[in-house]
From TrEMBL:
Compartment list: Cell membrane
Protein name in UniProt: Probable amino acid permease 7 isoform X2
Keywords: Amino-acid transport, Cell membrane, Membrane, Symport, Transmembrane, Transmembrane helix, Transport
Higher taxonomy: Eukaryota, Viridiplantae, Streptophyta, Embryophyta, Tracheophyta
Residue intervals passing through the bilayer: 26-48, 55-76, 112-136, 157-174, 180-202, 270-289, 309-328, 371-391, 397-417, 429-450
Amino acid transporter transmembrane domain sequence ranges: 24-454
Major site of localization recorded for this protein: membrane
Length: 459
């Protein structure tokens, strides 16, 4: 949530043109935020996804999702200011943009889906982080005891540990104070993606052949194949779109140049980089393991040695997801706290800040609402992750839920309103067809992912 400045100070160096905290974001910090949001736990499931789809459908599906994500970001970046994308009034959040362009009713639907998706992503990050922490322990066990050792460890302790770390990190005031965390997280994401790529490439060279087939992993029945293909599409959908936080990222960019221009350039660069890593990690992972491709490339233990490199890669995942969790949680924190402050303007619990001096560190301003709400939020995501610790299935459900409504429907509809595109005009027909096709893909992915989650819970 942006820090409000007084009107008298609106022209001061600490304040922006609308009296809010001055924005300092650049093309490079924007790329860092996007990569932190996009290259997350989803990259680890892509080898499995390509394995289910096969050598032709897998890479083509990934390229299609990359194109769709760029089109979505292109349309949405013009909605940051209204009514004109350069000179209009700023919309600070995705919901603000929907409210201005589409009205209150659709804003409620958008808000519900957006914050549910962010909350679900937090759950997925708890699962992924605990899996990586456990993988470090298993890797060391396999190195000591041999590859046939059981080396079985639970997830609960690591989930609780990650939750404790997030309780502390969640006290970061807002998105504008997170540039350093996103940069560190982006570096970590490059590190473990590169390691996964290198290990897959080395395994292919060691095997002396490329495994896998055009049809993908074989199943006992045609129905099982349909479910796994659907789930794979859901996993890829989870790995790409960042529309739910695009406006919030764009609100960190300084101007001039116009924010939409910077966002479009940063989106193209970030999507190109992530697609390259996704294709390399996914394709080399499937080429290395074929039908035995694990659901999580770095924790499924297709790789055992060098164990220290596996440990380092999983440590990078943990560090990255510490930042990634915050990127998706901060907009939720900002929305709830702003709503409560407007609802109870005179309540001390909601509005009063206390200055706490910590030795060797600058004074920290604490708010009881922030402390209690954010702690409860982290505890709830941790608790649900402990109940449903199913990596691929959870990613598939989240990807399918968030893909069409947030990455396609709302950006397309806002673009129609802002550009005043008439029904049945050529651009209207093209974008409407694009939206319907994406809806069908989303429905297929959602059904398959829900079936996979239910099956995993019952088994």
């Amino acid at each position: 949530m942006a820090v409000q400045c007084s009107l008298e100070l609106a022209k001061d160096s600490c304040c922006d043109d609308d009296g809010r905290q001055i924005r300092t974001g650049t093309y490079w910090t924007c790329i860092a935020h996007i990569i932190t949001a996009v290259i997350g736990s989803g990259v680890l499931s892509l080898a499995w996804s390509i394995g289910q789809l096969g050598w032709i459908a897998g890479p083509i599906s990934m390229l299609c999702f990359a194109i769709v994500t760029y089109v979505s970001s292109f349309l949405l970046s013009d909605s940051y200011r209204s009514p004109h994308p350069v000179t209009g009034t700023r919309n600070y959040t995705y919901m603000d943009a929907v409210k201005v362009n589409l009205g209150k009713k659709q804003t409620w639907v958008c808000g519900l889906l957006q914050y549910l998706s962010m909350y679900g992503t937090g759950i997925a990050y708890v699962i992924t982080t605990s899996t990586s922490m456990r993988a470090i322990q298993r890797s060391n066990c396999f190195h000591r005891e041999g590859h046939q050792a059981s080396c079985a460890y639970g997830d609960s302790f690591y989930m609780l540990l990650f939750g404790a770390i997030q309780i502390v990190c969640s006290q970061i005031p807002n998105f504008h104070n997170m540039e350093w965390l996103s940069i560190v997280a982006a570096i970590m994401s490059f590190s473990y993606s590169s390691i996964g790529l290198a290990l897959g490439f080395a395994k292919v060279i060691g095997n002396g052949r490329i495994k896998g087939s055009i049809a993908g992993v074989s199943t006992d029945t045609a129905a099982q194949k349909v479910w796994t293909v659907s789930q794979a599409l859901g996993d890829i959908a989870f790995a790409y779109p960042y529309s739910i936080i695009l406006i919030e990222i764009q609100d960190t960019l300084k101007s001039p140049p116009p924010e939409n221009q910077t966002m479009k350039k940063a989106s193209m660069t970030a999507i190109f980089i992530t697609t390259f890593f996704y294709l390399c990690c996914g394709c080399f992972g499937y080429a290395a393991f074929g039908d035995q491709t694990p659901g999580n490339l770095l924790t499924g233990f297709g790789f055992y040695e060098p164990y220290w490199l596996i440990d380092f890669a999983n440590a990078c995942i943990v560090l990255h997801l510490v930042g990634g969790y915050q990127v998706y949680s901060q907009p939720v924190f900002a929305f709830v706290e702003k709503w409560l402050q407007n609802k109870f303007p005179n309540n001390g619990f909601v509005n009063k800040f206390y200055s706490i001096k910590i030795p060797l560190l600058p004074a920290v301003k604490m708010n009881l609402l922030r402390l209690c709400f954010r702690t409860a939020y982290v505890l709830s995501t941790t608790g649900i992750a402990m109940l449903f610790p199913y990596f691929n299935q959870v990613l598939g459900v989240l990807g399918a839920l968030n893909f069409w409504p947030l990455a396609i429907y709302f950006p397309v509809e806002m673009y129609f309103v802002q550009k005043k595109i008439e029904p049945w005009a050529r651009k209207w027909v093209v974008l409407r067809t694009f939206s319907v096709i994406c809806l069908l893909v989303t429905m297929v992915a959602l059904v398959g992912s829900v079936e996979g989650l239910i099956s995993a819970k019952l088994s």
